[in-house]
Design brief:
60 residues, mainly alpha
Length: 60
């Protein structure tokens, strides 16, 4: 992915965002991270929300 970004010219920041968006979703929802206890970032945020009420709100 990094090589692709380094060698690709994007005409607008919107084009770059459209390219990165699917990878961001995969990373946040499906790739467990060692530094946060082998869970996904979204699972970590949900756990934080359960411990601390009112900080993280679900988007509607």
């Amino acid at each position: 992915m990094i090589a692709y970004l380094a060698t690709t010219h994007f005409d607008a920041s919107r084009d770059l965002q459209e390219t990165l968006s699917p990878y961001q979703k995969i990373y946040n929802y499906h790739v467990p991270q060692k530094n946060i206890g082998h869970i996904t970032p979204i699972q970590a945020l949900k756990g934080l929300a359960q411990k601390t009420t009112g900080i993280i709100q679900k988007e509607t």
